[in-house]
């Protein structure tokens, strides 16, 4: 019988997530709680670990109080979306010291050339006029991501198209570790390629929706009220072409709205476009706004209730962190023994 699989996911503590985070990641994590996974030739149950990666957040210096506040808000948002702490181990990365221990071990065997090839770093380096001021944390970020995955001996990692390179880096580093220390300590993590839910900016549909965008009307957050959602979608960029069609290249704004509707209503953007083919842009926006409001309003209400008692959220995290530390410390002992540390 195959041993239980283990799924690992991480999320930055940026406070209340935006719609793209929900559709691209969180909604999939909720679904994974009741699914079984393919492991080899067997269908097996699994554990799911979801880390609020507050150590990753330090690659850009943050206000300490704001970071703590947004960490709790992120946890409350995940629970409001349907993450059940009795089914998924939801924890703060910094509460498990073994993350940084494994990070250092892996850093010591990671070729600098591997990190130089990472797309995220190359982009930063290319855009920066003062490359010498780029921070080491950004450079070694992929190593900490690999440590997160390997520390829990994850067998599956949910990834979108923009995260595949980081998982491939972790897989390469796993092979390199096993070869360096002549071991087979870590299982090879399998990517769980989530269905693409790439949500674009409402104001500039050629760019991803992001909380860092200075335009407030570019994004919908899970904390937005019904009126705010309706207004933001009403102001969304579309075009002057008659009728509704799904054509991301020629009609990115309309296609983005169709993609949002499809993701929330369990259909395809093309099928949605066929149903709404004779709609005006205003009718499309009204239909999409209704779908977003119906999906997000219960989440916002639950999130508000949870945030009224932040001590309750803290207690949930602390309880889950006991479990995370138990698993991590056991695996750290195996790693330490493998590399020659006395433990």
Report the mean per-residue pLDDT as an integer.
92
Number of strands: 7
**Structurally, how many domains make up the residues?**
2
Q: Number of DSSP helices? A: 12
Low-confidence stretches: none
The major pleated sheet works out as: 3 strands, parallel
| Helix/strand order, N-terminal first | EHEEEHEHHHHEHEHHHHH
CATH topology description of the largest domain:
Rossmann fold
Radius of gyration: 21 Å
Percent in strands = 5-15%
EC number: 6.1.1.2
Keywords: Aminoacyl-tRNA synthetase, ATP-binding, Ligase, Nucleotide-binding, Protein biosynthesis
Family: Belongs to the class-I aminoacyl-tRNA synthetase family.
Main location: mitochondrion
Write a structural description:
By secondary structure, this protein is mainly alpha-helical. The protein contains twelve helices and seven strands. Helix 7 links the parallel strand 6 and strand 7. The strands form three sheets. A three-stranded parallel sheet has the order 1-4-5. Strands 2-3 form a two-stranded antiparallel sheet.
Please give the structural blueprint.
Layout: E1 5-11, H1 19-32, E2 37-39, E3 42-44, E4 46-52, H2 64-81, E5 88-92, H3 98-107, H4 112-116, H5 119-127, H6 136-151, E6 156-159, H7 164-180, E7 190-193, H8 226-234, H9 252-265, H10 269-275, H11 281-307, H12 310-339
Parallel strand pairs: 1-4, 4-5, 6-7
Antiparallel strand pairs: 2-3
GO cellular component, one term: mitochondrial matrix
Family: Belongs to the class-I aminoacyl-tRNA synthetase family.
GO biological process, one term: mitochondrial tryptophanyl-tRNA aminoacylation
């Amino acid at each position: 019988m195959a041993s239980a699989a283990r799924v690992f996911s991480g999320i930055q503590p940026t406070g209340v997530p935006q719609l793209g985070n929900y559709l691209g990641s969180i909604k999939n994590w909720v679904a994974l709680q009741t699914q079984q996974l393919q492991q080899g030739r067997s269908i097996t149950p699994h554990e799911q670990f979801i880390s609020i990666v507050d150590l990753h957040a330090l690659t850009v210096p943050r206000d300490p109080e704001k970071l703590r506040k947004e960490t709790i808000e992120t946890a409350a948002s995940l629970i409001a979306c349907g993450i059940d702490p009795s089914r998924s181990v939801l924890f703060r990365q910094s509460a498990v010291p073994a993350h940084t221990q494994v990070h250092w071990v892996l850093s010591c065997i990671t070729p600098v050339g591997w990190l130089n090839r990472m797309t995220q770093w190359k982009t930063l380096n290319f855009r920066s006029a003062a490359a010498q001021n780029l921070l080491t944390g950004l450079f070694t970020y992929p190593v900490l991501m690999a440590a997160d995955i390997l520390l829990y001996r994850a067998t599956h990692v949910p990834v979108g198209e923009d995260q595949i390179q980081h998982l491939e880096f972790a897989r390469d580093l796993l092979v390199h570790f096993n070869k360096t220390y002549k071991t087979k300590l870590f299982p090879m993590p399998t990517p769980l390629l989530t269905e693409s839910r790439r949500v674009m900016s409402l104001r500039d549909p050629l760019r991803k929706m992001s909380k860092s965008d200075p335009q407030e009307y570019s994004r919908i957050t899970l904390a937005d009220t019904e009126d705010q959602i309706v207004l933001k979608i009403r102001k969304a960029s579309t075009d002057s072409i008659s009728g509704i069609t799904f054509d991301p290249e020629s009609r990115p704004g309309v296609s983005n709205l169709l993609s949002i509707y499809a993701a929330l209503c369990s259909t395809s953007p093309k099928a949605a476009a066929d149903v709404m083919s004779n709609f005006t842009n205003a009718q499309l926006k009204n239909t999409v706004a209704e779908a977003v409001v119906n999906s997000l309003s219960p989440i916002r209400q639950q999130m508000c209730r949870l945030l009224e008692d932040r001590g309750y959220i803290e207690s949930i995290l602390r309880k889950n962190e006991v479990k995370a530390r138990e698993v991590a410390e056991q695996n750290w002992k195996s790693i330490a023994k493998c590399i020659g540390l006395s433990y």
